[in-house]
């Protein structure tokens, strides 16, 4: 997009569509041609240390960053698709309020966005540096919520290890302790009676 004459390009992506517990986090990162990184790797395939180092660079060098955090209760109320659309829209709105951008690229979600031209791409994080940065920012923020907030509140579930995703350990802990308040009930129907057993 910079080659097309756009100077400030925003990219939006989310983290946490699939977990059984915890929020959905969306990020929107606005970059200019002077951004020092040429590429950002898939945030799910690099170490937490590398992610945090890149996160610091992005936060320091980006023109603007917008975030949206959607709770598990809201996900249960409206469904994951509408929650995702809302989160991406809010993140983009927060970014444009913090620093103007001229073009928005989104990872495959068509938003009712009229403030700038918008492009929805499949696997956008592989094609857009701004979207890759947004995906990494969203993941770092969400992982921090699971590690620093939910894990101390509900230590028996091991959220710092699996971040709420459906791992064998997580399934084992749900069967042992039931569902915690931070579990998405709409994602956990397979656990049946476990829904009411949490006593923490």
From TrEMBL:
It is found in: Cytoplasm. Its EC number is 3.1.26.4. Manganese or magnesium. Binds 1 divalent metal ion per monomer in the absence of substrate. May bind a second metal ion after substrate binding. Its main location: cytoplasm. One of its GO terms (molecular function) is RNA binding. GO terms for biological process: DNA replication, removal of RNA primer; mismatch repair. GO terms for cellular component: cytoplasm; ribonuclease H2 complex. It holds the Pfam family RNase_HII. Residues 7-199 form the RNase H type-2 domain. The keyword Hydrolase applies. A divalent metal cation binds at residues 13-14, 107. The keyword Translocase does not apply. Belongs to the RNase HII family. This is Ribonuclease. It comes from Candidatus Caldatribacterium saccharofermentans.
């Amino acid at each position: 997009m910079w080659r097309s004459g756009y100077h400030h390009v925003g990219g939006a992506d989310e983290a946490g569509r699939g977990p059984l517990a915890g929020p959905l986090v969306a990020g929107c990162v606005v970059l200019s041609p002077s951004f020092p990184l040429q590429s950002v790797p898939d945030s799910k395939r690099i170490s937490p240390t590398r992610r945090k180092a890149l996160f610091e660079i992005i936060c320091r060098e980006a023109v603007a960053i917008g975030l949206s955090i959607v709770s598990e209760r809201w996900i249960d109320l409206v469904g994951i698709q509408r929650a995702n659309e809302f989160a991406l829209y809010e993140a983009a709105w927060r970014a444009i309020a913090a620093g103007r951008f001229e073009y928005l690229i989104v990872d495959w979600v068509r938003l009712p966005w009229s403030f700038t031209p918008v492009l929805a791409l499949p696997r956008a994080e592989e094609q857009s540096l701004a979207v890759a940065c947004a995906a990494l920012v969203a993941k770092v923020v969400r992982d921090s919520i699971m590690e620093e907030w939910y894990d101390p509140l509900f230590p028996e579930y091991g959220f710092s290890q699996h971040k709420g995703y459906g791992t064998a350990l997580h399934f084992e802990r749900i069967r042992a302790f039931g569902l915690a308040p931070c579990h998405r009930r709409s994602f956990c129907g397979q656990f049946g009676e476990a829904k009411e057993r949490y006593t923490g």
